[in-house]
Amino acid sequence: MNAGEAYPGAASRCAVEARGLGYVYPDGRRALSSVSFTVSSGEAVGIIGPNGAGKTTLFMVLAGLFAPAEGELSIFGEAPSFKWSPDLRRRIGLVFHSTDEQLFSPTVFDDVAFGPLNFGLPRSEVRGRVARALEAVGLQGYEGRSPHHLSSGERRRAAIATVLVYDPDILILDEPTSDLDPRGRRELVGLLSAMDHARLIASHDLEFIARTCSRVILLEGGTVRADARTAAVLTDSTLLEANGLEVPLGLRGLDAPALERLLKT
Q1: Structural domain of 139
Q2: Are residues 120 and 248 in the same domain?
Q3: What is the pTM of this model?
Q4: What SS3 state is found at 97?
Q5: Phi, psi (degrees; rounded to nearest 5) at 30
Q6: Is residue 8 exposed (0-12), middle (13-18) or buried (19+ Cβ within 10 Å)?
Q7: What is the mean pLDDT of each run of 10 residues along the chain (265 residues)?
Q8: Element (H, E) at 174
């Protein structure tokens, strides 16, 4: 599929629409150029590419933390300004690469409750939200635990809970497996696969992307190089190698139909 071409399976309920997005850092370095794509409600999209491809910058723009230099962005049909409304900001949950950026309080409860309390929600409502968010990630009963005493997998799930507490419609996860062991990675696959949010997941772990995303957007040099079904992209060695990646060892020798069948088992 050609770069920037609309994915044919996109549903009419559009969660995210980017049209010609560009971003330039204050030092003059261009990080994104003419980035266009859509993400439907409930769709899981992997964002892949080599280091410096623009994945994290794209997420910062989508989350309203960076203002695009050009182009248009629409979230559920609303064109946000750089100063997003609180209601729109709560609809997007960004899980950073490093859990240290989201877990900094004495207890898990304090971390998960931090955002809603700062938005001025009543403490009684926040308690219920925290309980539901922790249950969603399998951390019931962890409210009084110190985040610093959790395993890497538990910390990752607690970080996800800090955004689920807002009941967001869109989840954005930046390199969520970078600090996980095989069991934590497997648990995260199960957690994300069971969700019905629109999900955008950036990762160098392409087998993880294969297990969690039905579609892939390949970025290189700040531009979209491919936008297609996951199996088609991750089995295309020529495409991946031309853009600084390679077919994962566990997927070598498979064509797209074979990978589709494997992922259904």
Answers
A1: 105-167
A2: no
A3: 0.90
A4: coil
A5: -85, 125
A6: exposed
A7: 39 83 96 97 97 96 91 86 68 92 96 92 95 95 96 94 94 93 92 94 96 97 97 96 94 90 82
A8: strand 170-174
